[in-house]
Amino acid sequence: MKKIGVLALQGAFIEHEKMLEKLGASCVELRNKEDLKQDLDGLVLPGGESTVQGKLLKELEMDQELKERIENGTPVLGTCAGMILLASDIENQSQQYFGTIPMCVKRNAYGRQLGSFHTTDHVKGIGEVPMTFIRAPYVDHVGEGVKVLAEVEGKIVGVQYKKQLAFAFHPELDNDKAIHQKFLELI
Ligand code: GLN
After folding, report:
1. Is the pTM of this model over 0.85?
2. pLDDT per residue over 136-176, tens digit each?
3. What is the C-alpha separation between 84 and 80, in angstroms, rounded?
4. How many of the other CB atoms lie within 10 Å of CB of 111?
5. How far apart are CA 118 and CA 70, in angstroms?
6. Domain boundaries along the sequence of the chain
7. Which protein residues are within 6 Å of ligand 1, measured from CB?
8. pLDDT tens-digit profile of 62-82?
9. Secondary structure in 3-state letters for the chain
10. Distance CA 115, CA 66 (A)
11. Which atom of ligand 1 is closest in space to residue 50's alpha carbon?
């Protein structure tokens, strides 16, 4: 059985666990340094608030270990704030977090009226997927080797770089399991 470590410091992590368990994976919540001492087949970085998550990752001394695992090829799925944690550059912000995907993201990128919205659009290799955006980022531009998987109204909202998947929306909040299935297939 595939064992997935779900970062559980803040945000929408329980919904990811439910979805992954329905697909036959087992999940462990990562809340502190001790939790990182186990073997994990994959990692999930949930949505929430990237600044809060980033601060806690540092304070709890979890940031380096997780970054190394991602760099060493452990598959990872980052959604919304999780996408921001993976980005090498964040527009209008000097600080970055894991920075393991060469791309520049814009936080809270959709104006006030579009702060939250729902749509259905195409994801490469998957097909039509429901997409729930909540104060979401989008990807302004990607670096070499980054595959664009999804665009909504001309903005990049899904990418893959090696074994890292990042989406600006929240696949864990809709009933469609295709994104999580794709992630498990990377393992
Ligand atoms: N606005 C959040 C941030 O900048 C992301 C929102 C989300 O994860 N739903 O981190």
Report:
1. yes
2. 999 999 999 999 999 999 999 999 999 999 999 999 999 99
3. 7
4. 7
5. 30
6. 3-185
7. 47-50, 80-81, 84, 107-108, 134-135
8. 999 999 999 999 999 999 999
9. CCEEEEECCCCCHHHHHHHHHHCCCEEEEECCHHHHHCCCCEEEECCCCHHHHHHHHHHCCCHHHHHHHHHCCCCEEEECHHHHHHEEEECCECCCCCCCEEEEEECCCCCHHHCEEEEEEEECCCEEEEEEEECCCEEEEECCCCEEEEEECCEEEEEEECCEEEECCCHHHCCCCHHHHHHHHCC
10. 30
11. 10
Fold of 3-185: Rossmann fold (3.40.50)
Distance 109 CA to ligand 1 centre (A): 10
Active site residues: 80, 170, 172
